[in-house]
Amino acid sequence: MSDALSGALRMIAKRLSALALLMLATSFIVFSAMYLAPGSPESFLARGNSVTADTLQAIRDQYRLDDPFFERYLSWLGGIVTGDFGQSLQFRQPVDDLIASRLTTTATLVVYAFALILVSGIVIGVVAAVKRGKVDSAAIIGTTVAMGTPSFVVAIGLTSLFAVTLGWFPAFGAGEGFLNRIWHLTLPAVALALSSAALVARATRSSMLAEMGKEYVETARVRGLPESRIIWRHAFRNALVPVVTLAGLVVSGLLVTTTLVETAFGLNGMGSLLVQSVNAKDFPVTQAIVLIIVGVFALANLLVDLVYPLVDPRVRGKVGA
Amino acid sequence: MAVMTESALVRRRGLGRRFGGNKAMTLSIGVLTLFVLVALFAPWLAPHDPNAVSLANSLQGTSADHLLGTDQSGRDVLSRLIYGARSSLLGPLGVVVGATLLGVTIGVVAAWRGGWVDTALSRAIELIFAFPGVLLAILLVSVLSAGLKATVLALAIAYTPYMARMTRSAALSERHRPYIRALEIQGFPAVSIIVRHLLPNIAPLVLAQASLCFGYAMIDLAGLSFLGFGVQPPQADWGAMISEGQVALLQGAPLSALAPGVLIVCAVVGFSLIGEGVADRIRRADR
User: Fold this and answer.
1) Which of A276, B93, B219, B278 is deepest in the core (most CB within 10 A)?
2) Where in the cell does this protein reside (chain B) (predicted)?
């Protein structure tokens, strides 16, 4: 056990250093991209007003626009390491505060959608694999269409039906307080979840089908175990491994898709902030959000590898390899 | 993956025979052919000028003159859908062609040369993998400017890893087969072996992957146009039309936003069914 533990620790250390390297490369790409961008930030800051050369110079000094490239990159990077992402050009407030104020909406939305994806995806996948026949065909057709439906198309469809025609849910805003927030975020969460839920359902289905055909399931049946116990305690445990891998990929994809869903539902989250900041050439905010999304993307993949041994005891000994 | 590519690819058959049979696939090919024809002949098919603004006719319902009604600015929705097929299909085509050329080149070179070339290329591919496609496109748009070109370029780069990985593993398993060895021993130059023998043998796999990518590229490009980063108004595009139709949708006139959405779903599902169908055939021929 201690061997496995030290192996796992070594793996984590290796993966974390790879992650750090990736973030370094990403930060460099993001920073140099913004550096090369045509159109200067100070002209945006002057907001089209004709300003004196002195004012322009003051702005250039404030944002250190005259420093050489590497000096600016290093000071920016140094700031990020200490948790300072700089000043937003359009909101004139620290990027950290700005993102923090938007985080609740996005985090609630992503967690809500992720819960929907796991529950509905797994239930549909297991039921389709166990029942077969018409249920299975319906599940396959449904998931094929759902996988091909972009989140923003789901968003307008839901808005049209449940917000405009039926009036059950609000079409805009994130709401205040927990219950109100959940009510407001239900349509956005469904829009965010649908295609990924279909993906998880498909993966669960094929994984369950493979398990249900194995000998141990037959043995369990012969021994007279109740079917529900065979399905959930035996086959499902084994079928879960590929689903966990997929779930990791899905959760990181959700962060990008929130840009579309938040825009469609007029939510003040990180995704819509990214869209706003790109439109306004608010580089510090764009840089910060891109970096955060890539970081979460990589971190989610790391977490999946760490969760593996919990899901599948067979890989416990081999983690270090 | 490696097992799957083994023997199926040695036998080469005509594309026509690969496509027949499967009902879902036949239907998909039919629908997509229709879309392509509509895009090609848009000027002859469209009943109205897609950009003719007429505020007096704003948000009309379906009628004989406007089969799908008009949008917020009084433009004919059907005509905009027909013209929108052009950018909505050309964009993903650009992404897939770019990603396929780049990805197949990288994959084949990595598999053929091996060693440090393979290591370096694989690392570069992993780095791009860390960037979600839409995010890369948003980053590029913020650096360049919004438009179809920038988003297609960004997505072509973002999709390259998928093509490169698949090509590399397929080319790697072909690389060590006897026929390639035999050609090498006979002294044929590497380029001619790759172009005349290796590439045709991995072509079906590339085609299946490209078809799947086409659907995803369509979703991503439409999304970017929806955000205002892709095709710019007033040009007709399915993704942009959804964004333009949102206000009307909230006022209870959903057709100008829902119709392009339905078309996107049909096209994406069609491409993914074709991709799965081709992959299925390769797998079955393998058994």
Assistant:
1) B219
2) Cell membrane
Residue A228 one-letter amino acid: S
**Amino acid, single-letter form, for residue B195:** V
Kindly state the average pLDDT of the residues A1-30: 81
Q: How confident is the model at residue B3 (pLDDT cuts 50, 70, 90)?
A: very low
DSSP B242: H
pTM, two decimal places:
0.85
With an 8 Å Cβ cutoff, are B127 and A22 in contact?
Answer: yes
Is there a contact between B132 and A252 if contact means CB atoms under 8 Å apart? yes
Q: Could you tell me which of B98, B88, B44 has the C-alpha nearest to residue B210?
A: B98
In CATH terms, A99-313 corresponds, of 1.10.3720.10, 2.40.50.100, 3.20.20.70, 1.10.3730.10, to 1.10.3720.10
Cβ distance B142 to A145 less than 8 Å, yes or no, reads no
* Cβ–Cβ gap A148/B252 under 8 Å: no
Task: Name which of A206, A311, A196 is nearest A247 in CA terms.
Answer: A196
Residue from B59, B71, B136, B139 to probe the interface with A (highest A Cβ count within 10 Å) = B139
The closest CB to that of A37, out of B143, B219, B226, belongs to B143
Contact A211, A235 (CB under 8 A): yes
Dihedral (C-alpha) B180, B181, B183, B186: value to the nearest 10 degrees? 170
Cα separation, B130 vs A296, whole angstroms: 10
* Domain range B24-41+76-286, CATH architecture: Orthogonal Bundle (1.10)
Distance (Å, whole) CA A202 – CA A143? 7
| Closest residue, chain A, to B220 (C-alpha) | A150
Is residue A87 classed as helix, strand or coil in its secondary structure? strand
Contacts of A277 in chain B (CB under 8 A): 142
Q: Give the alpha-carbon dihedral of B84, B87, B88, B94, to 10 degrees.
A: 170
Which ipTM score applies to this complex?
0.84
Residue environment code for A126-137, b if the CB has 16+ CB neighbours within 10 A, otherwise e: bbbbbeeeeebe
Is A153–B264 a contact, with Cβ atoms under 8 angstroms apart? yes
Q: Which residues of B touch A294 (CB under 8 A)?
A: 130-131, 135
